[in-house]
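[audit] Reproducing an earlier prediction to check determinism. Same input, same settings, fresh worker. If the tokens differ from the archived copy the diff job will pick it up downstream; this log only records the rerun itself.
[audit] input (137 residues):
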Amino acid sequence: MKNHRTPQILALAILAVGLLALAAPAQNLAEKPFIGSWKGAIDIVGQKLEIRVVFTEGPDKKLAGTFESVTQGAAGIKLAGIAVEGKTIAFGLDPALVPGNAAFKGTIDATLTKITGEFSQGGYTGTFAVEKEKPQK
């Protein structure tokens, strides 16, 4: 006797496997728009400091990166505590290298080319804005 439900069961199994495959990298997909080099400024206590943030995909496939304060001549500072939720990204700077618990929280715009938000360090708060740099050819 032939089972008429076999094609339906097979189709459901294929659909379930496909959905699982799509769900697994969802966190990484949310982080992809942030990957790259971003340049802009921090505006805090009446001073504007030129900065660059570079987001990369780490060996563990999670977002990693470095920070540079162009104005202050500080480069290669590792980002810490990177968290992405939708279009919002939060991160800090390596506390072993930068005192004052430096923290950023911003939102990427609809064009995925600008991040704006708040910056805080050592009890002071300000704003920051960075734009994605085009890759050099």
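[audit] rerun output stored. Observation attached for the diff report: The two ends are 65 Å apart (CA to CA).
[audit] end
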